[in-house]
Amino acid sequence: xxxxxxxxxxxxxxxxxxxxxxxxxxxxxxxxxxxxxxxxxxxxxxxxxxxxxxxxxxxxxxxxxxxxxxxxxxxxxxxxxxxxxxxxxxxxxxxxxxxxxxxxxxxxxxxxxxxxxxxxxxxxxxxxxxxxxxxxxxxxxxxxxxxxxxxxxxxxxxxxxxxxxxxxxxxxxxxxxxxxxxxxxxxxxxxxxxxxxxxxxxxxxxxxxxxxxxxxxxxxxxxxxxxxxxxxxxxxxxxxxxxxxxxxxxxxxxxxxxxxxxxxxxxxxxxxxxxxxxxxxxxxxxxxxxxxxxxxxxxxxxxxxxxxxxxxxxxxxxxxxxxxxxxxxxxxxxxxxxxxxxxxxxxxxxxxxxxxxxxxxxxxxxxxxxxxxxxxxxxxxxxxxxxxxxxxxxxxxxxxxxxxxxxxxxxxxxxxxxxxxxxxxxxxxxxxxxxxxxxxxxxxxxxxxxxxxxxxxxxxxxxxxxxxxxxxxxxx
Length: 476
Ligand code: NAD
What we know:
By secondary structure, this protein is of the alpha/beta class. It contains 15 helices and 21 strands. The chain has a 7-stranded mixed sheet, sandwiched between helices. A 6-stranded mixed sheet has the order 10-9-8-11-12-20, with helices on both faces. The protein is globular.
């Protein structure tokens, strides 16, 4: 049985407890065992990262670029095999999983180039005989905490810029996806990173959460709002840099003049693919009166044809949900919606397949209001609501009436609505005739309101979090 151990100071270290890693497409299969670190081992990892920092932070950029390229190359070369591991432990389809590993590879390749582009500025002083230089330093030891739904891509978009800009890392992956984290850590450890520059610790967030923040300089987190709030609070108490990307309740507005096929495609992909387990999932479908019935009928028809099965089986379009706890949460919200008076032209059911797994068919709620609990809280499953509105003006107001602000989409053929929506949607991402989920790797990513705290991730904007500006005065 493969042991997914911890990487501390360049050594693979056994933790204090082991937890089975179960395949959600076949709950009889144990993929491996995660070895959970103790709080003391987390402290050891932070100490190792602290020890490695002074040398790494001033290491030459070509070395760092080469290491990041090595990581990218191995990810590209092994994307099929690693994609299979990801699909087995998380439940997304093989094609989606292979795509995600490729995306992680592209992110490392992108930052392998960014590292040689670090710039500074030189300015005239307002005083005679003095020069002013503005440069960027590495921040220090950075704790990286990630969720299970993108176990290669999200760690990649945090680890790559952290290492590129000279920081050392303690990485704490989600409990449900230790295999992907272990595979990624193994690649990073063999790519030329000196011992201690990159460390991996497994464990239950609530148990080792405090230890992960003790003695570090920054923490970057992606996960639920509840955990994100706690981490932001604790980081502020310690006065360390913090960035948190959290949940969503993303609207997809469909206006009367939309191309129906495009709108249905966006809704079905955005709301239900990857079993709705994406922070950018379109969970609120806000549809104007004139197209409402045609849209609902077409979505219903499309949903009826989706193939839900083992993530590794050819032809599967949607795999299982990730675990029993998530399945229970989805079922609970299905009951809540029905109690709140929503209609269910398509009601989710537990499905039996050749292998025992957490297979849940989609739920489409209709005749819902934006005030219902199912439209206020993130469900994170294959469940979406249709909200009927009079016109575009009501649609945008409903779209913005949410505590969240990650992604917001509109399907329309009108330039007027498209432009207005782009300007007034209160979200970090807006999508025109595209699903609310599905992102490029080289541009900034992040949300507003309860979805996000701190500066943007990814692309050239990542440098803001992973470096600290220094202003130097020189008398010459
Ligand atoms: P989660 O908040 O339960 O866990 C995320 C990570 O935080 C895990 O590694 C977990 O172990 C750790 N953690 C939990 N409690 C902790 C604590 N007290 N201290 C330190 N760490 C702790 O989230 P999840 O269930 O893994 O992921 C699903 C959530 O992630 C959804 O809400 C989804 O919207 C969100 N998400 C957001 C984005 C984004 O970029 N905005 C992307 C993907 C997922």
